């Protein structure tokens, strides 16, 4: 009885809402995660060659980092609006915009990670007859992994939060529920969607931190020796 | 590139700049809200961060705050505030959200700036008989300045971006030009609004970067005694820390 009335009373917390609209919430969450994953993966695919190019030609590093910082400064609502004429009202607007944002952190962190590879390691690999490709994939990248994963973590967490703004073109995952909830003054919907959003960000952060620890066991040993 | 030409036509139409929904009025709202909120956020965050940095406590708070700020969607906070009773008081939800999202970058950067001051320099200053207050004003503050300026720039960009989003939750500002364009399926207006917002954000960032450089207390001496040992203290250790801190600290402005 009282459970029914929380909908009518427009309470912030409403079990009935979560139960009756669970499908809607699941769909929005799936869309949210899908947009985030697609954006960060697309960002990685572009950031990688960009970072390698910037490293090979020292003169390009400044312009590449500068351009990505400029993109980073553009507010998300403006970014999506500028991409809308290019892609029409579609999910591509949101994914492209978020991928462009993640570039900044990813390029910067990949470059920093590669720069931090000790010259001795490089020399040793060359001395053992490693070619440039093998040197990159078997020596430099594994050593740059902590910085790369750190970048992915930051990119993922901020992308989850930013995906909500995609609601302006109707592809904002949980953000769409938040914006609809504002129009219909539906408090439970807004709060529930917001909380799921924060939980998603925290879960992504913890999962990626776990991945970082698993993939780079040497970093922990070094930290312990250092302290 | 038809969309840009249409947007240009929209921007060069005088009627779009006049009146309550015109660009001038929205720009005024945007700048006013941003400036007030940035000042409020500085008044809250900087004293706390500088004090905590000076006594060397509360590092976990400073770092977690910025991580938390990154995870919380700005749109959600704006909409939640609008639905509370605060939403009946005009711009109040926007102001609260703007301040909330400007505090973390200011606090974290200023705190880290204070903590990254070379311990040997602090020791030397103490050895010279400086009091806590002298140490703070003459040594720690000038050396922490670059990161404080970074925090201010980051917070400024954040505030401009958040003020744009406020339009989605019914607030004023330049974002209104965009949302109004969406509501009336007026693509030229959407693009024109987006160009204005992007230009404003870049301009604010540029101005804050230039102001930060001009006001740098150590830079003036750097020019005089290029690469003296005193400046090396900061540009050597500090520069490295700064790039690392920027990558780790700065949350994406909405």
UniProtKB/TrEMBL annotation, chain A:
Keywords: Membrane, Transmembrane, Transmembrane helix, Transport. This is ABC transporter permease. Belongs to the binding-protein-dependent transport system permease family. Its main location: membrane. InterPro entries: ABC_transp_perm/SBD (IPR051204), MetI-like (IPR000515), MetI-like_sf (IPR035906). It is found in: Cell membrane; Membrane. Residues 29-208 form the ABC transmembrane type-1 domain. Pfam families: BPD_transp_1. The chain crosses the membrane at residues 33-53, 60-80, 86-107, 154-178, 190-210. It is a multi-pass membrane protein.
TrEMBL record, chain B:
InterPro entries: ABC_transp_perm/SBD, MetI-like, MetI-like_sf. SUPFAM superfamilies: MetI-like (SSF161098). Gene3D superfamilies: MetI-like. Keywords: Membrane, Transmembrane, Transmembrane helix, Transport. It is a multi-pass membrane protein. It comes from the Bacteria. Belongs to the binding-protein-dependent transport system permease family. This is ABC transporter permease. It comes from Streptomyces pathocidini.
């Amino acid at each position: 009885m009282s459970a029914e009335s929380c909908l009518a009373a427009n309470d912030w917390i409403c079990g009935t809402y979560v139960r009756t609209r669970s499908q809607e919430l699941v769909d929005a969450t799936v869309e949210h995660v899908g947009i985030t994953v697609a954006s960060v993966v697309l960002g990685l695919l572009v950031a990688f060659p960009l970072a390698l190019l910037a490293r090979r030609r020292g003169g390009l590093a400044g312009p590449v980092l500068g351009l990505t910082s400029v993109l980073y400064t553009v507010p998300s609502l403006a970014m999506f609006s500028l991409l809308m004429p290019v892609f029409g009202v579609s999910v591509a607007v949101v994914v492209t915009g978020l991928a462009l944002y993640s570039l900044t952190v990813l390029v910067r962190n990949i470059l920093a990670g590669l720069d931090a590879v000790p010259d001795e390691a490089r020399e040793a690999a060359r001395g053992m007859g490693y070619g440039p490709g093998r040197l990159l994939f078997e020596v430099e990248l594994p050593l740059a992994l902590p910085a790369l994963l750190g970048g992915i973590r930051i990119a993922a967490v901020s992308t989850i939060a930013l995906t909500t703004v995609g609601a302006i073109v109707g592809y904002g995952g949980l953000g769409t529920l938040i914006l609809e909830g504002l129009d219909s003054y539906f408090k439970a919907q807004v709060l529930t969607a917001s909380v799921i959003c924060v939980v998603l960000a925290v879960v992504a952060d913890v999962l990626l931190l776990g991945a970082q620890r698993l993939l780079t066991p040497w970093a922990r040993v070094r930290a312990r020796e250092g302290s | 590139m038809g969309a840009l030409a249409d947007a240009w036509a929209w921007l060069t139409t005088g009627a779009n700049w006049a009146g309550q929904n015109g660009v001038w009025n929205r720009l005024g709202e945007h700048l006013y809200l941003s400036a007030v909120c940035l000042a409020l956020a500085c008044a809250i965050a900087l004293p706390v961060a500088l004090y905590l940095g000076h006594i060397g406590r509360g590092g976990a708070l400073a770092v977690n705050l910025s991580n938390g700020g990154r995870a919380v969607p700005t749109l959600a906070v704006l909409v939640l505030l609008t639905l509370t009773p605060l939403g009946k008081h005009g711009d109040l939800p926007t102001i609260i959200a703007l301040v909330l999202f400007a505090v973390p970058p200011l606090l974290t950067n200023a705190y880290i700036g204070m903590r990254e001051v070379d311990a040997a320099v602090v020791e030397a200053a103490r050895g010279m008989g400086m009091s806590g207050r002298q140490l703070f004003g003459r040594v720690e503050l000038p050396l922490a300045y670059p990161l404080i300026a970074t925090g201010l720039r980051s917070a400024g960009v954040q505030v401009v971006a958040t003020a744009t989003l406020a339009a989605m939750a019914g607030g004023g500002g330049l974002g209104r030009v965009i949302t109004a364009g969406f509501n009336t399926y007026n693509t030229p207006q959407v693009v024109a609004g987006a160009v204005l917002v992007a230009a404003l954000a870049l301009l604010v960032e540029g101005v804050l970067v230039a102001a930060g450089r001009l006001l740098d207390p150590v830079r003036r001496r750097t020019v005089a005694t290029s690469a003296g040992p005193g400046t090396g203290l900061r540009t050597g250790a500090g520069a490295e820390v700064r790039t690392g801190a920027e990558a780790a600290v700065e949350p994406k402005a909405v």
